Amino acid sequence: MNNPASFPRDFVWGAATSAYQIEGSPLADGAGISNWHHFTHLQNGKILNDDTGDKACDHFHRFPEDVAHMQTMGLKAYRLSLAWSRIMPEGRGPINSKGLDFYKRLLDQLNRAGIVPYVTLHHWDMPLAIDHLGGWAHRDSAHWFSDYAAATLTQLGDRVTHWATFNEPWVIVHAGYIEGAHPPGISDVLKARDAAHNLLRGHGLAVQAFRAEGRGQMGIVINLEPKYKGSERPEDLAATARMDAWMNRQFLDPLFLGHDPLELEEIHGAGLPPYPEADYVLIQEPIDYLGINYYSRSVVRDAPGLAPFHADRIPQETAPHTDMDWEIYPDGLKHCLLWVKERYGDIPLYITENGAAFDDGAPIDERVRDPRRIDYLRSHLLAAREAMAAGVDLRGYFAWSLLDNFEWAYGYAKRFGLIHVDYDTQTRTLKDSALFYREVIDSDGQALWR
Ligand code: IFM
Q1: pTM of the predicted model over 0.90
Q2: Of 141, 268, 271, 296, which is the most exposed, with the fewest CB atoms less than 10 Å away?
Q3: Are 303 and 243 in contact (CB under 8 A)?
Q4: 221 phi, psi to nearest 5 deg
Q5: Which of 408, 410, 412, 421, when mutated, tests ligand 1's pocket best, judged by the most ligand atoms within 8 Å of its CB?
Q6: For ligand 1, is residue 36 a contact (CB within 6 Å)?
Q7: Max CA-CA distance within the chain?
Q8: In the chain, which stretches have pLDDT less than 50?
Q9: Domain assignment of residue 6, yes or no
């Protein structure tokens, strides 16, 4: 930390993926049907080109090659998620040991390679059987999840020390229960409220199970998008606060402060029966770290007709954007790291996802030139380093993503990978950004300043 133009020696340099996005073979070895398998096979126009995760990056079969690529890149850590439906096919009840075996093989491969696995228990793919019972809107979902978590922690605890309960619960709630773009594909603001609360209860119960059975560290991964006011008009300020509450504070306030943000009442309606006080004690179960996923920011204005948020994003037309149409705004990363420290205290932080979708074309002479992704990584890492210099306890950074993969509603159309995947042949090619990232890692970050 003394050298302002480098990162600490023990900084954790990693890359991230998730199960449904890369594994393929979703029903292999006795796995149950997941909500995402079901949703993609509905072919109801909600997934671009009717793409599915049936094959994805075929990581299920090709993980030894993928771990070898991680070694080539010099990764210190790899963030992955587990498919609940491989481990508990019905979401509850008996464990499927063959499903677990896949993860044991993968984790062994990583540990042998000296790459520390950071494992997320749930990254959106829920067993369909329990989704059909009401999914996260059902109060029992917290217990379904913590039973799965407890069993998994016991089974894999000898191989994993860094755990997270959930990835981006906000997306589960917003895309699944408000926009209907992800499973369960509905638009119901009250169910969304219950889903958010039950995810947090499930998190608290899983942390308790971890304290009883696990070793190492347990955290949660939250996606943050700083909201900037569109103007000084009181209506725009209120809309900005509402969107900040909905996206950023909806999860962090209960986790660290023990209450929901007040502005949620403007969205869900006041006068709803309150949840039991004991829920908030459970949700505040102390964690070892917070994972932050950061991609962009938004500038907000009041939009009275747009239920349920009555707010809208002001397009930043002259600013650079990625292929997701997300504004590239590295300062937002610094701001949200500083904001988390100021509002919630000195919890150890990791950037658990950060990256950019760009289509850089097929490899030419086994090379993919992706200077825009390099610029994105560089500018965001420099912003993160500035936050560290200002006192933020940032322990590591995971680029999203190791591989091009299944980008949910966008199918295979958006490429976030440091490694290019040819989906027909499953050939992997390290992009220039992967080679750049290797230099960054090798030099403790100093390559960023060159
Ligand atoms: O691909 C997703 C990932 O699953 C969760 N975080 C955002 C990424 C890019 O959209």
Answers
A1: yes
A2: 271
A3: no
A4: -115, 120
A5: 408
A6: no
A7: 63
A8: none
A9: no
